[in-house]
Every structure is written in structure tokens, then in C-alpha cells.
Design the sequence.
């Protein structure tokens, strides 16, 4: 079992479009196993590859007693109106908000053996989780689906959460503002 680091809000990979998986390799199988282990330890119900720093179009889900490997997913059918429900995200710890999602979806994806399958009429937690994880594969976070007012509130909560993790004399640098690494031979 290998636990993977979970990237948090501010990491550029969370905003990137993922790449189609073209081969099921032993490395990909290990990644899937590690993602399930990481998700379980973090007490999540879904985890997408970008959340662990990878660019593959892949996520794992364990919701409503359904455990799935979801490779190259596509929502092929939406049914019903929008349903509001609370969501959180392992990449934005301790932040929760009500998000509108389609009531039922059908998703076409590949399993860990590369076989295509469909999840028909996914609703409730499973449907919400699949929509949330598929958003990650397209560089979207659940906060992108909030009204401007709710998004500002969530971001303020996130800022306070981040500040509380460090002593007052430590300034957390946003990703991209990190100083260049020093050459250890010159140090």
C-alpha cells in the first residue's frame, strides 16, 4: 500500500484538462490501487488522478456501496432537474457547500481491464460523486459551481483554514511564488 500526496487548491494540476488513457499498464494498476488506499485513509468517496498529481483521465469512486474504477469517463445522458446537495473535496479540506447537480446521469467509462461499461441512472451520492470527479478531470472544482457570493465565502473559509495550520510568523506562498531550488553543490 502506498499513500499518495493529495494536491490542494492552488496546485496547477487541479486546473488542467486530463489526458485520455490509451493503455492499461502495470503502473496504472498500481496507481489505481494507491488511489483507493489514499481515498480510504482520507475518508473520501471519490478521488481523481489530478488530486494526486497525475494527468490521466481516471478516477476511483466508492459511494452507495458501489466501488468503481472509472477510466476515460463521459457523461452520455442527463435526466431530471438540478438537485442541491452538500459537497466537500479532499483537495479543499474542511470546506463544504451546497452544489447543484443533475439528478441522474449515465456514464460510459472503461474499467481497469480496459473494457467499456455504462453506469445507468446514477443518482444520489453515486451520481453526485461521479459528476464531482469527472469535473476534476476537466480542471474544475466544486467551488466553480457556486454563486459568486457562496464562492467568496468558501474561499474565505479556505484562507482561514490555511492560516490556522501555520504559526503567525510563517507566510504560506501560493503555488507559483515558490523560490527556485538552490543547487546543493553551490550551497
Sequence:
Amino acid at each position: 500500500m502506498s499513500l499518495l500526496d493529495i494536491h490542494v487548491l492552488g496546485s496547477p494540476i487541479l486546473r488542467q484538462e486530463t489526458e485520455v488513457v490509451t493503455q492499461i499498464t502495470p503502473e496504472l494498476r498500481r496507481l489505481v490501487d494507491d488511489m483507493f488506499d489514499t481515498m480510504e485513509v482520507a475518508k473520501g468517496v471519490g478521488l481523481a488522478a489530478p488530486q494526486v498529481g497525475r494527468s490521466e483521465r481516471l478516477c476511483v469512486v466508492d459511494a452507495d456501496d458501489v466501488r468503481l474504477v472509472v477510466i476515460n469517463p463521459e457523461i452520455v445522458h442527463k435526466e431530471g432537474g438540478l438537485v442541491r446537495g452538500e459537497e466537500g473535496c479532499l483537495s479543499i479540506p474542511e470546506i463544504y457547500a451546497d452544489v447543484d447537480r443533475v439528478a441522474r446521469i449515465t456514464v460510459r467509462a472503461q474499467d481497469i481491464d480496459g473494457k467499456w461499461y455504462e453506469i445507468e441512472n446514477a443518482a444520489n451520492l453515486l451520481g453526485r460523486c461521479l459528476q464531482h470527479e469527472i469535473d476534476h478531470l476537466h480542471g474544475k472544482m466544486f467551488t466553480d459551481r457556486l454563486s459568486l457570493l457562496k464562492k467568496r465565502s468558501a474561499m474565505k473559509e479556505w484562507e482561514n483554514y490555511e492560516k490556522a495550520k501555520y504559526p503567525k510568523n510563517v507566510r504560506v506562498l501560493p503555488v507559483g511564488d515558490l523560490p527556485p531550488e538552490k543547487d546543493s553543490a553551490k550551497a
Remarks:
- Residues 148-164 form the longest helix (17 residues).
